[in-house]
Amino acid sequence: MIAYEEIAGMLKAVEKHRDNKPYLLKGNSFSLYFFTNENGGRNAEYPFPNDVQAYTSTNGYYGNMKTEMLLNADKNPYDFRPTLQHELVHYYDQNAKTNDGYSSYWGVGGAFFSREGAAEYGCYNYYQYPKNTKNDLPLTWPKDKKSILEYAKQQGGYRTPLLSQTDFRSFGDIYNASNNNYGMTYSLYWYLVQEYGEAKIQEYITYVNNKYEPNQSIPQEEKDSVAMKFLGKKEEQVLKEWLTYFNNFK
Length: 250
Ligand SMILES: [Zn+2]
Fold this sequence. Notes:
Helices cover about 45% and strands about 5% of the residues. By secondary structure, the protein is mainly α. The protein has a domain at about 100-250. Helix 2 crosses helix 4, helix 4 (about 110-125) crosses helix 7 and helix 8 (about 200-210) packs antiparallel against helix 9. It starts with a helix and ends in a 5-residue tail after the last helix. Zinc ion (ZN) binds near residues 86, 90, 116 and 119.
């Protein structure tokens, strides 16, 4: 398993972009399981549906994070390293001490923007995947405007428009409008990093997560003033510019 040999390098790559060292927390554990499912199908010990090659779950909270990955190693049709790296970014972010205020702040899509966007950005921009010399599995590695747009289309299944609506007020709004398309939250996070730098975006998200409690309601004017403080613009304006940059994802 190629990623197994590289995992120390992948962890170090995330650590260059985060302040915390979750593995030093008392009581913390990080469990990563690779299952194989040589028999395939629904009768194996850890059965996958026939059309699913891999499954990852990330559960836990500050100081007690657990990530489990089920990987149908024999039948995987693509290079799995970015998916692993995505989960490693979660491991750091979910073990950072915050209030998890993003859900009250950005709504139902709050984590989709702040957590999944960050993990997608991290898995395609932190680590330089060495050439896979073990097999010919294709490596998805979107890192510029054109390849990110293609990635979003691929994630969306090429069937329907990438966005069901474009009248946004909040970064969390893209969750429903994109039907939970990870390529779309990556495109937004990547765009923000290009425009404002990663440190600023991390600072903004961390500020929100630390300042607000999950169950409080926050007036729109306050969200606008926080966005002004970190980005110099309201979210609504940033989102308009993101749409323009990506030609409205047409
Ligand atoms: Zn994720």
